């Protein structure tokens, strides 16, 4: 890989200190850094346009920021079949697993072909209002259906391949990929899955029932979540924590494996279970 695109969350990298370090490292190992035209926007605003700008000019995108920056970048980059590597300038960083002090070593590994590219499954979501398709989107991490700020229990009927599974009263439901199992779904009590697995995780959010548990379906299943007809307030469908859609009683959403996959570049030395242990349990490898 010679041409490497760079996307930076400038609120995480004030003054572009780590970005400049990355550029220098790419040049040192004989590569070309592809940088988008900088705008006056801050943080993740305008990142979509920046990714679009460089996608046709590079073979890999490296993003600097947190997992939110990674997701924002990946949601555009996957359309160009480009692999992505994340440098963690945030907190946990399950997707951005290269730390600040590892930049030079990571770039060296890339130019020595000492890496793998993992293809992760994505979810396709379709929202229906009054029986008609209202919106479509894809998710790398998850799709959540939740209360839109109203302190009322949300009743969600869940179906697997059109077969009724259960009614979940509570704050909502998260439908996650294995990649997203360490995000919102985990916070809601869902299981952690190896990110290269092929399955769909459904986790109730604060369920108002004693027996409620997460359940796991195969990648070939279709999950349908319907808002109770009696719910008059707005509910919110959120995709990857990036995009929101309002729905109400009688509306429903269908979620299944997407046809496309996102490509994540991984340095060989990075093992998911080691990362999990260090980040979740804050333990050092012995």
What would you say this structure looks like, in words?
The protein is an alpha+beta fold. The protein has 2 domains: about 120 residues, Probable inorganic polyphosphate/atp-NAD kinase, domain 1 (Rossmann fold), CATH 3.40.50; about 140 residues, Tumour Suppressor Smad4 (Sandwich), CATH 2.60.200.30. It has 6 helices and 16 strands. Strands 6-5-16-13-8-9 form a 6-stranded antiparallel sheet. Strands 12-11-10-7-14-15 form a 6-stranded antiparallel sheet, with no helix packed on it. α1 links the parallel β1 and β2. The model has no long low-confidence stretch (mean pLDDT about 90).
Fill in the keyword field for this structure.
286 residues, alpha+beta, Rossmann fold, Tumour Suppressor Smad4, 2 domains, 6-stranded antiparallel sheet, 6 helices, 19% helix
Secondary structure tally: strands: 16
Q: Percent of residues in helical segments?
A: 10-25%
What's the number of domains?
Answer: 2
Give the CATH H-level superfamily of the largest domain: Probable inorganic polyphosphate/atp-NAD kinase, domain 2
Q: What CATH architecture of the largest domain would you give?
A: Sandwich
Number of helical regions: 6
Q: Which structural class should the secondary elements be placed in? A: alpha+beta
Bin the strand percentage.
35-45%
Radius of gyration: 20 Å
| CATH uppermost class of the largest domain | Mainly Beta
